[in-house]
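Posting this for the archive.
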Amino acid sequence: MDSLTISQSEAGLTLGCALDKLCVEIVPSQADCEGQACASILVDGADWSLRLSGGQHDPAHSPYGLSELSSADAEPSFQLWPTLIRFEGGILAGVETQLRAMYSGGGASSTTLHLIAFLPGQPPFEVLSVPQSANVMIRACFSERDMKHRAQVCHDEYNFDASLDLTEVSAAGMPVLRYRSEATSFPGPVSRFEDSLAGRPLSKSDIVTVTNPLCSYHRLYSFDPEARSYMPDTPPPDCSDYTVP
């Protein structure tokens, strides 16, 4: 795994480079834009592509269009994953997509990691999509009575963080990936599917951050040639109350 140095041009284009100058970048799909033309595209909105550049990359690698990663009901937001995975058969590059939502007295954001495979002799394609991070804050007080019931703690908070790294194993010519996550809630084991005011009043001992054991897990992902994607060794749990804004 190579760490990338991320930079951004004045036109807003993002570039990440390894030490040997192999780079991955997010650029408008309109390949001939330059300078102010690119800046104009950023303002007007455009399709984006992920492409390799520099170093000793295979010139046959074509760009990957990012439009399929966009949410239909949200403005697309793309960032480079600051890591590049190189193996004998090709390269895995990552794109992070962000979603945000605003609530009355709260809000939420989430980041999803998409891995794109650049393999010789074929167009690049997505091989993995996993939750990477999320934060949710939900208002829990609407009156003085609510504040007393909640011991002056008037927000429920949910946090989710995950990491992806390599194992020493490969399958179907692709590296096996290790995914780890940690999910926490505050105050105590709150739930987005329950009324936080319906339970007993909170005490000082309840005002703690706790780990959710179901959504704090690890999985091994191996490449399935028939599905053309990475598959977990066991299905991951439903953690949408942490990972969906």
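Helices lie at 36-44, 144-149, 240-243. The first strand starts at residue 2 and ends at 3.
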